[in-house]
């Protein structure tokens, strides 16, 4: 009996093992595990774009073609689904808003990503097993040639109406810059509104690799991407509640910190917003409602070198300065908002304020109209000077005021005021525009002004001894539209050798058949203008009616 049980148990075990082996044999065909080798077909790609088989370098808005070689253990390329993705390269790089850029075995896509370093990934998913396989590429996107560094030339266009933008790329020594025309409409497929009157570049801290390019036009404005001028946001989206009366006059930022303050003056009122390394990548960032008070502001903001939340402003209605700390929304010092009382009483004497024999000035009582204010040394010194041009109501007296930007003022200036007389500075009382070189020693130094078809260089000397001489004379009938020096936000170490000492002049010479031109004139060590309209350092022609010019520095410099 015992022997029979053992025999039966053995038979059952053998049967179970046999059935198990039979089922196992039915479930497996004993093929090798699925394996895929993904490689770049270097014979079918642009070798100027592929640095290596896994490293790609191209300009923004260029087309990228990637061809693959698929070696699979179970089939051919058609046995997989494909997805091409772009992700951030590291945590310090930005992550693109749109990640998927293709879904075929090969990639053929226009790369519109902002300039940065990315990771391009192709994902293969087996149609049979669902197993996923990946290949990674380093993808460096550079700005298009016209979106890097250069001079932005805004123009009204007689043909077709509207306005557009040309770019003169930075001149490098003897190499002449390249002109790219109509770059705004090239990307956006439409023009800027007719009457667009200002283009401006706002720079942020170098490590942020960020800029804002804005255009102002009647009753509005638009911000565009700095690398290709693609429309970004219209002014209706700059405010939580759009202003009722839109007349944009000035915008900008001191640009020196990672969490900087940006300002805009609209209809003689100031609004501001704070920009950080995080928020700048996550728009919108709204401007505050206008800071209202007893003042009507001139369209100039004197930013402090010590903190970009301190802004020195000028009240043109009461002809006095005020210092606003936008971080707290208070005046400095924290006086009540009373016209001509924003600072402590003047600490000098009456003789210091004598209009002829004195050189002092009272921030509370400037007495004249501010017609121009410009930072003469942007980002090249710890606390650069500002040049402020004042003119009396009758238009027969002009003064230059120089002072260092600060976060507090003792209001004890006994020097810094210079009377500019017609006898020594011809045409100064009717001068229409001004420009300040960025490299001369201050205080004093020099500046340039336009009267008629002449550009003068004025050497600043004490009291009323400043002397101006003609630096350039253009043909009769020439209208000088714009005059600029390089006020760009570069540090002293990165100031371009060529553009750092240049005077840029835009003209309308259509009355003499010369059309519209942009001239570059070199400046020597003392600020003298070298060359002439007949022999400039460079001249560019073929533009429409020029309304504004500004310089855009390279990102990360």
Please outline what is shown here:
InterPro entries: PKD-like (IPR032183). The chain has 557 residues and is mainly beta. The chain is 6% helix and 39% strand.
SSE topology sketch:
Blueprint lengths: L1 H26 L8 E5 L9 E3 L2 E5 L3 E4 L1 E5 L7 E9 L11 E3 L4 E4 L5 E11 L5 E11 L7 E7 L6 E7 L9 E2 L2 H6 L9 E6 L7 E7 L2 E5 L6 E4 L13 E6 L6 E7 L2 E7 L26 E2 L6 E6 L4 E6 L4 E2 L37 E7 L9 E7 L6 E7 L12 E4 L12 E3 L10 E6 L2 E6 L7 E7 L5 E6 L17 E8 L5 E8 L15 E6 L1 E8 L5
Parallel strand pairs: 3-10
Antiparallel strand pairs: 1-5, 2-3, 4-8, 6-7, 6-9, 9-10, 11-12, 11-37, 12-13, 14-15, 15-16, 16-17, 18-19, 19-20, 21-22, 22-23, 23-24, 25-26, 26-27, 27-28, 29-30, 30-31, 31-32, 33-34, 34-35, 35-36
Protein name: PKD-like family protein
InterPro entries: PKD-like (IPR032183)
Pfam families: PKD_2
Kindly provide the radius of gyration, computed on alpha-carbon positions and rounded to a whole number of angstroms: 33 Å
Major β-sheet, in short?
Answer: 6 strands, mixed
Strand order of the largest sheet: 2-3-10-9-6-7
The proportion of residues forming helix, as a percent range, comes to under 10%
Uncertain residue segments: 1-31
Mean pLDDT: 87
Terminus-to-terminus distance: 97 Å
Number of strands: 37
User: Rough shape?
Assistant: elongated
Q: Structural class of the secondary structure composition?
A: mainly beta
The number of helical segments is 2
Strand content: 35-45%
InterPro entries: PKD-like
Protein name: PKD-like family protein
Pfam family, one: PKD_2
